[in-house]
Amino acid sequence: MNTADLQPSKLGTKEHWDNVYGEELANFEEIGDEGEIWFGIEVLEKMIEWVEEYAPASSAPSILEVGSGNGTLLFGLLDAGYDASLLLGIDYSTDAVNLAKRVATTRGGDGISFYESDFLNNDPPKLERMDSQEGIAVWDLLLDKGTYDAIALGEKEETGKSPAERYPARVARLLKQGGRFLITSCNFTEDELKASFATPETGLIYHSRIQHPTFSFGGHSGSVVSSVAFEK
Length: 232
Hints:
It comes from Crucibulum laeve. The protein is an alpha/beta fold and about 230 residues long. The chain has one domain: Rossmann fold (3-Layer(aba) Sandwich), CATH 3.40.50.150. It is about 35% helix and about 25% strand. The two termini are about 25 Å apart. The strands form 2 sheets. Strands 1, 2, 3, 4, 5, 6, 7 and 10 form an 8-stranded mixed beta sheet that branches. The protein has a two-stranded antiparallel ribbon with strand order 8-9. It is globular, with a radius of gyration of 17 Å. The longest helix has 18 residues, at about 15-30.
């Protein structure tokens, strides 16, 4: 499957995510519920373990999460000893950003930056202790847990292409040379992610993968989610 094969869904609309995070923000204000952990706690923990191995906190990496939602992944990195001042989460939903900021006040994560931004169309802001190239902030590490999936379910553009086809180039643009990108997806296999991201146009190459539990069906085996890392 590639991005062109996916049909548009409400999961690819800003309206849907505004509604989701509006409800989660209201729940947090009422009962302190921080909201859903997309793909579950096990996937979250494995992503954090990968970051600890390949971008250890001792190296003070600048880390951008694309589509940070309620901020759970960045809070996990904070708990693992990463410098809050080098962590930024962006999301195009205002209430997602508001929720993450509110959760941060209870998690000791006030130093983490959360910013409303449409990744496909806007460059995220530069944090104080970051490098920049050609006028844009460049990062040691980009993280994605389900955002590429949602973008791939968006309405086709005037050209008939999925908006997700613009995503790999945006990733490459925001990475330092030697920087890495870790993506977890439930819509695309490891091979499909490699085909989309490791191309001559992006300059990204395959780096590593996270092993998730597998299942067998009809003589084939696979994982419910795929986590693949690329390096610039």
